[in-house]
Amino acid sequence: MSYNTTTTPQTPPLRPIHFPDAKSKPQLRIVDTSINPDEAHCLDEDDIDNQPCSPPQSPVSSSPWEDASAASTSASIPSTPTTQVSIHEPLLSQHASSKSQTVLSEPITKEIKIPSESFGGPITPLPPQWNLRGDIYTFSFWTSPKAARSLPEHAYSPLEGVTSFADEAYSRPAGGLSMIQILSYRDSPIGPYDEMLVAPGSFDWERTEADGKKTRGCNPKITRIYVSTPNSCFNGRTNWNVPKHLAKFVWDHHADGTTTIKIYPHDDPSNPDESQPSSRPLFQTTFKPMSLVPRFPFATSWADRLGFNTTLVMPPLPAGNGTYGELPSTNRWIKLETKQYCSRSTAGWYDIAQPDGGAGCGGIENFLPWLGRWQVGVKMEDAFLSFDVPQEAWEKGDKLDDATTTSDDKNEDDDGKEEELRNKPEAGKWNTSFLHDYFT
C-alpha cells in the first residue's frame, strides 16, 4: 500500500463562523512567523471579499467525505513550520445604545504548528475508505447496566467528558460486551502509528426521522481513544467521530514473548494545548501468551454471529485546543461498521494492574472498577482492518424518552435488565450468556 507523500503543510478543512449581530465583517489576519513581524499584513474590510481565502473560519470539518485536495485549499495559510492565525471577532459594546452600537475588535489568536516528519508529517485530510495492517492487542469484558451507569471520570477524555458527547440524555450507557484494544499499525493511508481505545459497552440513542417516526438503537461507543500522530487524530475525528487525542506509546518486548505497553496521554488537564505527554501513564498492560494454545484465525465479525452488535454509533465531537489543529469538531451522528481479521492469533493473559495504585486513572487499581487484574484476550498478528464510509449519518439526536428516570428507579430495574441481557437470545442467533459467565 502506498503512503501519502505530501510534504506541503496543510490546514484542516474549515467552515465559517457567523456573527449575526455584527455590523462589520470580521477580519482574518494571517501572520507568517518566519518573517519580520513588521511585514505581516491585515486584510482590510474593503479588501476581504477580493482575497482567495474564505471568511474567518475554525478548524471544523463540515463535509468530512469531500475530496481532500479541495478541502485543504479553503484558506491560504503560509507554508511555514509554525503558522499563527489571528481571527479578529467583532464584539458589540455592552454600553452602546440599540440605535448606535460600537463594534469592538478583539483578536483571538491560535498558533497551529506543522507536525514534523518524525511525528507523521503535515495533517492531510484523507476521506474513507481506509485499509490498514498491523498487530492488535485486545481483550473483552462484560459491563453490567449498573456499572455502565457509574462510568468513572476517566472513561472519557477531559474534553469530551464535559460536552454533549458524554451527555447521557442523548447517549445513555447500557452495558454489555466491552473491550480495550491497543493497535500498532505498520501500514495505513497516513503511515505507521499506534492506537489505544476503550469501548465500555453499548449506549442507547434515539432520533426522529423525516416522517416524524422515532428510530432507537443500542450500539457500542468508543468513549476514549489515543493515537500517536496528529494525522490520525484529525482524520479519525472528522471521518468517523472517534474522540481521538494524542499520546506517547512505550512498547517493551521481552525475551520471554511478553509485551508491556504504556500510554502517556497529551490531554492532561494541566496541558491545555495538548502539546506534551503526561508524566505518568493513563493505562498500561502486559500481555503474556499462553504457550500451550495453538495459534488460530480470528475476526471481530464472529461477535456479530454470536448475537452481539458491534456496529458503532458515535455522537458529534467538540473542538479542542490542539497544538497542531488536530482536534476539530463534527456536527453529525454516524453509524459505522469496522472489520478486523487475522489468520494467526495468540491467546494470552493481560495483566492490567496499574502503576502507583492507579494514580493515572482515578486511583482504580485495574483501570475500571469492575475489572479484575487478569483478563483473557488475544494478540492478532499482522491483522487486516478496514474503516469504510459510515453506513448512516444524521444531524441531530433526540433526548431519550425515559432519560428522566430517577436513580432509584434505575437501581430497581438493574437486576431484571442484566438478567434479560444475559439470557434472552435473538432469533436465529446463539445464546450468548456463556460469554458473560466466561469473562466475569
From TrEMBL:
It comes from the Eukaryota. This is Uncharacterized protein. SUPFAM superfamilies: Acetoacetate decarboxylase-like. Residues 1-84, 396-440 are annotated as: Disordered. Residues 59-83 have a biased composition (Low complexity). InterPro entries: ADC_dom_sf.
